[in-house]
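Inverse folding, one chain.
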């Protein structure tokens, strides 16, 4: 019973993070700034961030609930692993001693993103063991 509970916790964590960041983009108005600072300005337009933010919220809810996992877990991994690639320097140099021009640009709070990326990939790999997902209750075949 520990494996399904662990996978549920990972779904809540990864889906919850998508919901939070989606709200930051859609409601908080920080999406353009995030795009400029960490993604080279890709998708920095406010309307793009608004659409992406609400899409991220919807995806996060589906992940938390365990619905359409065949698709939602892959999409969440693309976002979470892709986001981790954008901040790779924070994993290799969390204190800013080597890879940052200014150590104050380093942010140790980005370091856990590598764990989130791993959890997103583990959810895909262990999907068949996730018996507490709602799509398991709505379908006779594996989701």
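Residues assigned per position:
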């Amino acid at each position: 019973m520990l494996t399904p509970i662990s996978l549920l916790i990972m779904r809540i964590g990864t889906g919850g993070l998508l919901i939070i960041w989606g709200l930051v983009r859609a409601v908080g108005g920080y999406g353009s700034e995030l795009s400029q600072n960490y993604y080279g300005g890709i998708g920095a337009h406010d309307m793009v961030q608004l659409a992406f933010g609400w899409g991220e919220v919807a995806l996060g809810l589906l992940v938390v609930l365990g619905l359409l996992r065949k698709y939602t877990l892959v999409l969440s991994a693309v976002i979470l692993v892709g986001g981790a690639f954008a901040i790779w320097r924070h994993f290799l140099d969390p204190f800013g001693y080597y890879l940052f021009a200014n150590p104050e640009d380093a942010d140790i709070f980005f370091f856990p993103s590598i764990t989130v990326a791993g959890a997103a990939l583990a959810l895909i790999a262990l999907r068949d063991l996730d018996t507490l997902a709602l799509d398991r209750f709505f379908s006779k075949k594996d989701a």
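Residues 103 and 133 are 43 Å apart (CA to CA). The mean pLDDT is 91.
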